[in-house]
Amino acid sequence: MVTDTGFILSKEAFDSSSGVSFVFWLWCENGPLKVQVEHQEVVFFIPENQVTAAKRLLQNQNIHARFADAKLKNFQNQSVICCYFKSLKDYYSAIKVLKSSQLVTFEDDVRPIDRFLMERFIKGSVWVKGEIQIRSGFRLLKNAKLKPNNEFRPFFKHVSIDIECNGEGVLFSIGLVGDGIDKVLMIGRPKPTTHLDYQINWCEDEIDLLTQFENEIQRIDPDVLIGWNVIEFDFSVLHARAEALGISLKLGRNKEIMRVRSGNITRITMPGRVVIDGIDTLKNATYHYDSFSLANVASIELGEEKLISTDNRLEEIIRQFNEDKLSLANYNRQDCILVLRIFEKLKLLDFAVVRSQLTGLELERMGGSVAAFTNLYLPLLHRSGYIAPNLGDHGLSFDSPGGYVMSSQPGLYKNILVLDYKSLYPSIMRTFCIDPLGLVEGLKKPDDAIEGFNQAQFSRTEHHLPELIRELAATRQMAKDKNQPMLSQAIKIIMNSLYGVLGSKGCRFYDPRLSSSITLRGHEIMQTTKQWIEEWGYDVIYGDTDSTFVKLDDDLNSLNCNEIGTKLAEKINKRWQQVLQKDYKIDSFLEIEYETHYSPFFMPTIRGKTMGSKKRYVGKVEKNGASKLVFKGMETVRSDWTELAHEFQTELFEILFAENYSQELIFQAFDRYVKKLYAGEFDAKLIYRKRLGQHLTDYQKNIPPHVKAAKQYLADNPHLAFQRGQIIKYVYTANGAEYYTGQHNYDYGIYVNKQLLPIAEMIVVDLGTKVSSLSDRQIQLF
């Protein structure tokens, strides 16, 4: 018997003669470890009063099951019975049979291998103990036992992968760059490559290419394979070509076969290895870009470009394969390098590891907020004597409201303070004990419960989320203190997702009494905060979800404003402690912070109306001796406006916020931009960028400008193709919207009326000038 510690790379479940077997591949300091857990049973639950009927149905179908009472009940306080199975085949057959006969099952959608880990609180890192066997290239641990190891940190050997192919998926080359390799596998006759600082392996055909790729993976033996859209595209294409050519790709450890499952999402099973996609990981880490294309992200994050930048990249790839294979190899390799550098700069592997260790999700898992919540909450719920509900078990049909947004008071202000509640929704859940179990127990004993909204009652003692939130908040603070940004960010994402999960109808724990008790409490807190601040002699001009905007006197300097902001936060926090103790006999975990001092600050009206807008404003902040404009919801931060609009709006607000401001300066700026526009000086800044939300053929009735431009361009260039999700660049000409190619007869009048004029009007109208004065100036200029 030996004991080791490692990190789970892959997991699979199999039927065996002695029951269900779970197989895990671990990264360990001493090399890869294959772990087998044998003689397992898998389980779901049924109501106790349906046991007799269930036994009869399963016996008729020759499905073997074991029924046992684990002293558990559902959220309707009905006793439930465990249904155990020694084979996955019987397990899934039983679910189908029982449901087809209208019997109720609980937790049958929890994957057995996931249940095995979550019930042991195993999240990524693990201690293992078992009987060791030495195999070629790895170690095998049989009859293993597992327990959590929350402190273990892996250091993966990783390689960046990229393929090149034609439009039908026929392969040209495969690039591999990373630990222990810098190589391109290319189909073609050998060419001199002594001048290159990387290696090219020449392949006879696709079968040879795939065989060499398989050999390289086995030789390098990476733990993690990374890439850009690498699961949905690269490995899906590789798998499809291997199937078409009648071969299997043995890319897993111990030369196990890679398997691909397609559906709403594509899943890659590569025993002993993990495939991690850059786009998915960026989205999980809440990065935002106008486009997640490798070209765009590499340009923003690295300041580097792809080696092929033409609009029709596929056509150029095919040309290079036929005419200039060395250039294609350079391009292929460069894409691998860009992915590698993005992962390293943004520490995406570190983020994936930390996220897995917090939630139990697989390293490569996309999204997964509901699954993460289930992993964390379900084993705690079982230990409290309950099983999880099915969707809709609450029987309620009303919807809970969204976050609180206050009507704004538009105008130009000298001093605005912003006070933000720190993690408002998690703090509400912790303070008012909002929790699925707490709701069930609170409704049973309402006399000693904390009142929520829509007849909700929450137990003061029987709950799990308040403690979970407390632990997460404490761990996040430690992460900040120890300068562990990836851990801090991962915890922030998890905490912020808790309300989203409880408010999602796709979550088994969704109950509108839970979500409304969070959001409506948020409304109450924001309204009360406004009331208190106004009682203390200040005006509140706006509020949004967790932020309150406070107007101070114009004659105050930044030091005065900062002192007031700090004192207001202290008074509000102290008052909440007093009020909640008095009214509910609970401690307050609400914490408002003085966040920002804007000077000046501009809140616009809704276009064409006199009332103030929401979620749109501009302010100037001072930080480290430098001033910066902050735009919220304005054209400057919107990707569907042109660079001309972004630049113009920024300049107008610099003018508006300057000490020597006069309205004539706004007019002069407008005149200057219009003249330069018609002189062609802004031609490079007139490009609109819009994503295709669906395939071009799916647009039939309401066809937006970018789709019209793309369709017209394809009509003239039928050899091209646009994909769903692709960013379309287009401009306005005398012929309407045209796909951007660089040479156009621009309709400058449209840009004045649709880009410059609305931005200028927003400022001058709100400051009391008639719209016609700007329009008239445009007419007078020409």
Description:
The structure is a single chain. Residues 766-772 have low confidence and may be disordered. A six-stranded mixed β-sheet has the order 12-11-10-9-13-16, with helices on both faces. It folds into four domains: 2-148, OB fold (Dihydrolipoamide Acetyltransferase, E2P) (Beta Barrel); 158-346, Nucleotidyltransferase, domain 5 (2-Layer Sandwich); 391-599, B family DNA polymerase, palm domain (Palm domain of DNA polymerase, Alpha-Beta Complex); 627-781, Topoisomerase I, Chain A, domain 4 (Orthogonal Bundle), CATH 1.10.132. It starts with a strand and ends with a helix. The chain has 782 residues and is of the alpha+beta class. Helix 14 (465-481) packs antiparallel against helix 15 and helix 21 packs antiparallel against helix 22. It is built from 22 helices and 29 strands. 40% of the residues lie in helices and 24% in strands.
- Radius of gyration, whole Å: 31 Å
Query: How much is the average pLDDT?
Result: 92
Number of helices: 22
Q: Percentage of helical residues?
A: 25-40%
Instruction: Report the CATH topology name of the largest domain.
Output: Palm domain of DNA polymerase
